Automatic annotation (TrEMBL), chain A:
Record-level Gene Ontology MF annotations: ATP binding; ATP hydrolysis activity
SMART domains in UniProt: AAA
InterPro entries reported in the protein's UniProt record: AAA+_ATPase, ABC_transp_ATP-bind, ABC_transporter-like_ATP-bd, ABC_transporter-like_CS, P-loop_NTPase
Keyword Cytoplasm: no
Signal peptide: none
UniProt domain ABC transporter: residue ranges: 4-237
Similarity-based family: Belongs to the ABC transporter superfamily.
GO biological process: transmembrane transport
UniProt xrefs under Pfam families: ABC_tran (PF00005)
Record carries keyword Methyltransferase: no
Protein name: ABC transporter ATP-binding protein
Keywords: ATP-binding, Nucleotide-binding, Transport
From TrEMBL, chain B:
Cellular compartments annotated: Cell inner membrane
Keyword line: ATP-binding, Cell membrane, Membrane, Nucleotide-binding, Transport
InterPro entries attached to this UniProt entry: AAA+_ATPase (IPR003593), ABC_Ni/Peptide_Import (IPR050388), ABC_transporter-like_ATP-bd (IPR003439), P-loop_NTPase (IPR027417)
Similarity comment text for this entry: Belongs to the ABC transporter superfamily.
Gene3D superfamilies the record matches: P-loop containing nucleotide triphosphate hydrolases
Source taxonomy: Bacteria, Pseudomonadati, Pseudomonadota, Alphaproteobacteria, Rhodobacterales
GO terms under cellular component: plasma membrane
Location of the ABC transporter domain: 6-252
Membrane-topology annotation of the record: Peripheral membrane protein
One GO MF term: ATP binding
The keyword Transcription regulation belongs to this UniProt entry's keyword annotation: no
Protein name: ABC transporter ATP-binding protein
Main localization of the protein described in the UniProt heading: membrane
Superkingdom, taxonomy of origin: Bacteria
Organism: Mesobaculum littorinae
Length: 248, 279
């Protein structure tokens, strides 16, 4: 299990500054949430911390190493990402076997067949799915494949970018249960972006509220139900979510 | 219900080449009320909305009855439908980014909707559009009138859409996931504006959504759809007392704020749900 420490992460796209000194710590084995409205920079934090975008200043450390120091191969074995839309994140013309074997080839990991079978088994899919293509799977099954792809290199940290928001409630429940189970089994650290506070409340111990590229406040999960936020924006966001849920 | 706006009996829709119909034997009536249509993706809820507007020329639509006020929607000619759509029945789509014309000013698009259906001068249409922008609580209607869709936020875009759709005083509005593309903070605001206008003008509203919370708060009655058919019809406030295992499964699968964080109950699908008769 490895902790994630992000300090003073700043990014500018041209003249536009999209992240302003974002800092937060995620304990080893914790599930940490990032919430905020669209355009607040939640996904950008994940993209920078995973070096999908490298022109930023500040520091991101996983365990005792900075992500900048790691080689690409090292980094990929340390952290992996699951994206929002399973329809867009799997190559339409690659079979599941290709999707899962590619990271193993790149990382020179032996026993590919066994590992692929195990990875599918971990996410609750039958092994004969290896020869299917993404269009032959449902949205939930595709998201399971995306999770299997991320976990097959045995990373320590998983970045989840709205992993369930493209899915139906019924399927969302399956994926949430799966993610919770895998975190326990494999000792993963999660950083999860979501706009749904109910999902955050269900999965995360702590979460950061973001607005316009800044972390407004870092709160414990307990702060949601009673709205214990002290900053105005965080209060508004939690109020809106509570009100939306009020009839439940 | 003395005066139904919409009366549908045994509506089925089959896409060309599809083995099974996307919508099967759906029947309901709509008065001056807010009706929610809920289901998972692929359950046929959007297809239902589009079929009511006759927006699917290629699909095969059959029904025993499909009556909108005095108009028989099954027999109506396309010319007649052109006069109905946007005038007496209108549709609010999910994402203003895709449903507004990107190269025309927001206000001009609203004014056009008015001029399509009413004879008036451009100046009158402009005034109408500004008035309507004001009604959807846009603070500087004259300024927003001149903005292009990419210059407005999602919430504002959706309000422009609502303004455009309600300007002609329709009797029926079909809102297909009107707020799914919006942030939680603006979602409620947009829903309230829509809700106020719908009540004030006595419009019949069909709210298509995958979100049980939303229909519970903003609808009077709810149809639950599964695999193209209506499995249950409920008063929105009785949603907790739903009988059908599918509805109960959907409700239970939702994570709740301050829930116990145990495993979420996963929906166990029963093939019989696709067959059984409507209760």
């Amino acid at each position: 299990m490895k902790p994630v420490v992000i300090s003073d992460l700043s990014v500018a796209f041209g003249a536009l500054r999209v992240l302003h000194d974002v800092s937060f710590d995620v304990a080893a084995g914790e599930c940490f949430g990032l919430v905020g409205e669209s355009g607040s920079g939640k996904s950008t934090v994940l993209r920078c911390a995973s070096m999908l975008w490298s022109k930023w200043t500040g520091e991101v450390r996983i365990g005792d190493r900075s992500v900048r120091e790691m080689s690409a191969a090292d980094r990929c074995r340390t952290l992996q990402m699951v994206f929002q839309d399973p329809f867009g994140s799997l190559h339409p013309r690659h079979s599941i076997r290709t999707v899962l074997s590619e990271p193993l080839k790149i990382q020179n990991i032996p026993d590919r067949d066994d590992r692929m079978a195990q990875a599918l088994c971990d996410v609750g899919l039958p092994v004969d799915f290896l020869d299917r293509y993404p269009h032959q799977l449902s949205g939930g099954q595709r998201q399971r494949v995306a999770i299997a792809r991320a976990l097959i290199v045995e990373p320590d940290v998983l970045f989840l970018d709205e992993p369930t928001s493209a899915l139906d409630v019924s399927v969302q429940a399956e994926i949430i249960n799966l993610l919770m189970r895998l975190r326990g089994e494999k000792g993963l650290t999660y950083v999860m972006v979501s706009h749904d506070l109910a999902v955050i409340d269900h999965m995360c111990d702590r979460f950061a509220v973001m607005q316009a590229g800044r972390v407004v406040e870092v709160l414990n999960r307990e702060a949601i139900a009673g709205n214990g936020a002290t900053q105005a924006y965080a209060r508004d966001l939690i109020d809106a979510s509570l009100e939306y849920e009020r009839a439940l | 219900m003395t005066d139904p706006i919409l009366d549908v009996a045994d509506l089925s829709v089959r896409y060309p080449g599809a083995t099974a119909p996307a919508v099967r034997n759906v029947s309901f009536t709509l008065g001056r009320e807010r009706l929610g249509v809920v289901g998972e993706s692929g359950s046929g809820k959007s297809t239902l909305g589009r079929a009511l507007m006759r927006l699917m020329p290629a699909a095969d639509i059959t029904a025993r009855r499909m009556q909108f006020e005095e108009v028989d929607l099954l027999a109506a000619r396309e010319r007649q439908m052109l006069k109905l759509r946007g005038r007496r029945m209108s549709m609010i789509l999910q994402d203003p980014k895709f449903s507004l014309n990107p190269i025309r000013r927001c206000g001009d698009q609203i004014a056009e909707a008015y001029r399509t259906h009413f004879r008036c001068s451009k100046a009158q249409a402009h005034d109408k559009a500004v008035e309507m922008l004001d009604a959807v609580q846009i603070r500087e209607p004259e300024r927003v009138y001149r903005l292009y869709p990419h210059e407005v936020s999602g919430g504002m875009g959706q309000r422009v859409m609502i303004a455009m759709m309600l300007l002609t005083d329709p009797d029926l509005v079909i809102a297909d996931e009107p707020t799914s593309a919006l942030d939680v903070t603006v979602r409620l605001q947009v829903l309230r504006i829509l809700d106020d206008l719908v009540r004030e003008k006595g419009i019949g509203l069909i709210m298509i959504s995958h979100d049980l919370n939303l229909v519970r708060n903003f609808c009077d009655r709810v149809l639950i759809m599964y695999a193209g058919r209506v499995v249950e019809t409920l008063k929105a406030r009785d949603l907790d007392r739903a009988q059908h295992p599918y509805t109960r499964g959907l409700l239970a699968a939702q994570p709740r704020i301050a829930g116990d964080r145990g495993d979420l109950p996963v929906l166990q699908r029963d093939p019989a749900w696709e067959q059984e008769a409507r209760p």
